[in-house]
Known about the structure:
The structure is a homodimer.
Chain A: H1 4-12, H2 17-27, H3 33-38, E1 47-52, H4 58-71, E2 76-82, H5 89-99, E3 108-114, H6 121-134, E4 140-146, H7 151-156, E5 161-166, H8 172-182, E6 187-190, H9 198-211, E7 221-223, H10 232-249, H11 251-271, H12 274-285, H13 292-297
Helix pairs in contact in A: 1-2, 4-5, 6-11
Amino acid sequence: MFAINDITAGVLKGDFLLLAKTISSVENKVQGVDDFLQALLPNAVPIIGVTGPPGAGKSTLISALIGEWIKEGKKIAVLSVDPSSPFHKGAILGDRIRMKEWYLHPSVFIRSLASRGHLGGLTSSMIELTTLLQSVGFDKIILETVGVGQSEVEVASLADTTVVVLVPEAGDEVQMMKSGLMEIADLFVVNKSDRPDAETFANHIVQMIMENGQDVNTIKVIKTVASQGVGVQDLIAAINTHQEDLSKTGRNIKLVMSKVEQLIVAHKLRQIDSQKMEAALKDALKSHQFNIFRFTNQYLD
Amino acid sequence: MFAINDITAGVLKGDFLLLAKTISSVENKVQGVDDFLQALLPNAVPIIGVTGPPGAGKSTLISALIGEWIKEGKKIAVLSVDPSSPFHKGAILGDRIRMKEWYLHPSVFIRSLASRGHLGGLTSSMIELTTLLQSVGFDKIILETVGVGQSEVEVASLADTTVVVLVPEAGDEVQMMKSGLMEIADLFVVNKSDRPDAETFANHIVQMIMENGQDVNTIKVIKTVASQGVGVQDLIAAINTHQEDLSKTGRNIKLVMSKVEQLIVAHKLRQIDSQKMEAALKDALKSHQFNIFRFTNQYLD
């Protein structure tokens, strides 16, 4: 592993080579990673999750956020979670193109991560990577994920502020499907809000928030046209307000607790010798009436 | 806890009172549940997951499946997972109405379960409940869930055969969103396939399966009009074929392994004293540079 001071010095001057190599080492859990992680001294850098369906304009919005933060002299890290399915390739490639204006900027670090199937696998390494990014001089950390399957739920469990990006064109069914997103949103963005139905759509979301028994003064609905920078300042203000509220409401404690639980789970699962378990299972399944609870007992402590 | 023989005797004559009470005891983890579960002698009853977006006709399809199986003299249990959000109330109520023809039938047991937010909470109790149902005389177990958020991924990890139900009307974006469903499907049903675009839609799914590098002879796409019973026999044949293939491909071992892992995780999380952890965290977070890995260390073994 590289010395954290050397990585930080690189980040300071816009040279992300050591950081990129370290991220690979953390992802691959090379020898020494545990000690390295336990020696990190992270700062309280906010983690902003950005999720929503393909085509909602997440990357354009992130580009716009980066543009504003750069003006304030901030250093920004973006982690993009690629769902592993090849179905998403189009969307992700499109995203990369939209964000490419920042790829060579010395204040912006962008990295795509493959999502893994293994229970707790993605979040465990995301906790490690975001803690690393918090420790090497970044001011803002953005986690981007496409709102399909469970990856956005996992990402929301890591972000201090989760922004759900939607567009005013979805039919009834889409809105129902998106209701999975309702439960993870700290803020909603109605992007491409120069479209005719934007106002109606935004009102509809406000109504859903109220029906869900939540507070529309807390879960704000912000209208943007990210490609023209419209509404981006409003979004930044809402993100800042949300983060100020976090510590007041004690939600930050719940968030850290959930991360600790996820680390415990990931550690427990890593302890299991899968090959040995598979062999034992094959044997046990030969019995006619296999009881999974009796079998599992041997792995409990 | 009731004696398993008494519950089984009730199921045999269509009296589900003891079963319903036992399910509540298992869900609430009353004293003695662990011993009760470990004494179960489950049969190899197939678990069929049925998922898809609201309005796809899942309940109508399940009703049609029940109708066919009843004719064969089977006993059927249906567990419906209610996503906890109030947004879904409409859909679920509608589902109930559509399935109500079976509510009083002595060969059919239907129970709705609230999904819980806690990590691993839903699946852990679903493993317990399906094992219970496998032990008291049912021939088929159906797990129904609305395809939003992570609940359908969890359910797919429990089902021997996961059937994804879609309708030929969804736009491009919906199809992208559904791609989260692509990864969990063992079989696709294009329901309401008397609609004009059904053929195109079914071909589109076949194409997506091929693009995903999967075998269209294994992941079949079945056209149904559930409300008229059209295609239901094809679906039953496909389910049967899939279940015969399960043991040949060894996928059943992977499935049981995943369940064992989920039970281990749930047990580990139950061991944590959340209140104590929260107090310790509040204290630790006072330090300026809180390291989550050092903090988590105390909970690892």
